[in-house]
Amino acid sequence: MSDQKIKIHSVKYNLIMNVILKMSSFVFPLITFPYVSRILGAEGNGKVAFASSVIYYFSVIASLGIPTYGVRICAKYREDVEKLSKTVKELLIISSIMMIVSYILFFVALTFIPRLQEEKPLMLINSVTILLTVTGVEWFYQAIEQYDYITFRNLAFKILSIVLMFLFVHKSEDYIKYGLICVVGTSGSNILNFFRLNKFVKLNNKYPLEFRTHLKPIMMLFLLTASTIIYTSLDTTMLGFISGDSEVGYYNAAVKLKGILVSVVTALGTVLLPRLSYYLTNGMKKEFIALIRKSFNFVLLISIPLSVFCIVQAADCILFLAGDGYSKSILPMQFITPSIIFIGITNIIGIQILVPVGEEKKTVISTIAGAIVNLILNSILIPLFGAAGAALATMIAEFSVLVVQIYMIKGSILEMINFKNCGKIVVANVFALSVLTILNIFITVESLFVKLLILAVVYFVVYGSILILLREDIIMEIIGKVFNRTRNGAAPK
């Protein structure tokens, strides 16, 4: 490995790379989900989703809180190869030990829980994710801001998974093959990460290893992650145990679309975490506040119109993506879609504000509150309403997390949010929604795709036009940069 300084790209470049990556999470499901949902049906889809939700718990145990902590601590030491190498080695050893513990717990569960034994091959295939999550050290590449590598690597494996899906998934009984392909598409690229580490760090050097300094923040972030998955994955798991695979399939169709949109909304947060940690480490508070304000604007600018459009057009979206057999997914989608806004904001407060300043405990408290709310509501609503009950419980839980987090930072929230700019975003959405409502009355296009395309284009054109008239900050910044480049004789990139 060379001792040369790691090249750090600009926030703008990293955001472009991460948006490309997140958009691939939008585009690829649009290619795969309509096909898979029709081939496997709600039951087959439900089996794969249930297995993934169960394995996710064990993956979290294996990784502890290292994915978030690793980004922060490695970003701090990224200009010191020796400290960086030592830290990476320590974190790898901790996660390897926890991976062994996780696999032991998994095989115990697989042996003694009958519901898991029903789909034992699928469970075993999905369990490979545990190994790939630990060895993938994605947190390291995020810390050194190698987003171009992360993006292109993930795109390659997503394309591979699509090819494999069309080659091998042709009937409902192929759900196990689909489960394997999902593992390849989501985690297969992690194999490359581990072998590429030597390019940046010296793992072969003998360092005086110290684990104690990492354990407290890791455990705190583990509690954060563990409590988070209770209200993000427990709904699917409880549906599988209480209502069966078909209800999981209906719910998964709604969650799939929500997940796509959330990945777009939170794209900036992933990019900013290492940069925010760096600013705080170097006492750059003004830069920290400015970046947080921009992050709030970005999230609200994107999340509010996406949520409004998907709630109003839920029926068309579900029927287009999943097919006629998923009409029971429409109400769950309408219930769960507002959580896109809540997640976007809590991602800023919890991951971009509280974690970089070392206040993980407050984030943990908020997610525990959400987990308790979700557990109680799931227990009540799933037996009564199935997938719709799980969606409603999740949305309320996400909102409860937001309320607690706002209370946690009530002393500094005013300087971090531009409320005047937020008002412009809300006003623009009201105008766009009014136009969308009128269009729905008059448009009678038989093709769902054409209808959705027309409505989406008109909705977002109206939304963008109003934002320009109101001179919204981010829109005006983009327009200003485009005009400046044009004036200077350069083509906008």
**Number of structurally distinct domains:** 2
Radius of gyration (CA) equals 23 Å
Helix content: over 70%
N-to-C CA distance:
33 Å
Strand content: under 5%
User: What is the N-to-C succession of helices and strands?
Assistant: HHHHHHHHHHHHHHHHHHHHHHH
Low-pLDDT segments, ≥5 res: none
- How many helices? 23
Question: What is the averaged pLDDT score?
Answer: 84
Number of DSSP-assigned strands: 0
- Class by SSE composition: mainly alpha
Sum up the overall morphology in one term: globular
Largest sheet: none
How does this model look, in words?
- The chain is 82% helix and 0% strand.
- With 493 residues, it is mainly alpha-helical.
- The chain has two domains: 11-202 and 211-417, no CATH class; 419-493, no CATH class.
- The radius of gyration is 23 Å and the shape is globular.
- The mean pLDDT is 84.
Kindly list the characteristics that best describe this protein.
0% strand
Structure summary:
The chain is mostly helical. The protein has helices at residues 11-63, 66-76, 81-112, 114-117, 120-135, 138-143, 147-168, 175-187, 190-196, 212-232, 234-242, 245-265, 267-281, 285-312, 314-321, 330-336, 339-354, 360-385, 387-408, 413-416, 419-442, 448-470, 473-487. The longest helix is centred in the first third of the chain and has 53 residues, at 11-63.
Write the layout of secondary structure elements.
Blueprint: H1 11-63, H2 66-76, H3 81-112, H4 114-117, H5 120-135, H6 138-143, H7 147-168, H8 175-187, H9 190-196, H10 212-232, H11 234-242, H12 245-265, H13 267-281, H14 285-312, H15 314-321, H16 330-336, H17 339-354, H18 360-385, H19 387-408, H20 413-416, H21 419-442, H22 448-470, H23 473-487
